[in-house]
């Protein structure tokens, strides 16, 4: 009976997780489509029926998931020459999708189904459709890369944690468990697949959209920085952490059309100082994700003060009334665990949840 109840609970948990996953995807697509249609309406005006737009958006969404869960799954998990196979199949995918798209356009315009006559206007239509395909394929590849990187990381962490828990009776293995836990909190599994995919995305889209290409390269730099510093006993120059914070701010600005406002003030001696990596940048990421930093009259503030062997880092942001992200506090808890493991008795972490502002302050005796 107990086993059956446990199985039922597990099944219900899986169903809830799948429903939440599907709901998040629906919300993201709804926001994306609403944004695009609103932009079209405000600039050139909608020149077709909503049914017309709905059909072609469904076609593009189908391309997004087909590329991620059919082509990339097959190329990277069923073949030995993953990059080459993926490139070939994506090229074929682009051709077939273009033909389907053009035939559908002919249907909507009342033309012959097999008409592929080429004029200057047709050439512009072909070119715009190819650019649209590359756009959805690029972001589909990014989605696939992040999805499987997270799954791979969680699976490996679960296996490692299980092995260490079985032998945690000795002090040596207990220390290994702390090291493994910190490595997990720091998200430091080396997903070479991610960088291969990001390089492919950059090569595919940087000539079409320099802005999107710049975003990909900034993301790759930040991810590479986090992966290089994978050892728990390794510190990094403070200047490196500061440089990554500035890249994160720049990347967030590009994502939000430069509608985020953050002031980053640095005082004291930064050169020659070493700290535990990814502590400061995680606080900034948390501020951008959950805080209100979209008001130019009240920007988010980052204050860094390094005096001799004492480091103070503070983020101040206006509280956001609504957000797409659920506040779990996991990020701040992970930071506190890492600080406690590496700077025992030599740090303070203060969190102030005030009426209008949210303030996080860290002080470390280096």
Automatic annotation (TrEMBL):
The chain crosses the membrane at residues 21-40, 52-76, 83-100, 130-150. Keywords: Kinase, Membrane, Transferase, Transmembrane, Transmembrane helix. The keyword Membrane applies. The keyword Transferase applies. Residues 180-259 form the Signal transduction histidine kinase internal region domain. GO terms for molecular function: kinase activity. InterPro entries: Bact_2-comp_sensor_kinase (IPR050640), Sig_transdc_His_kin_internal (IPR010559). This is Histidine kinase. It comes from Mucilaginibacter sabulilitoris.
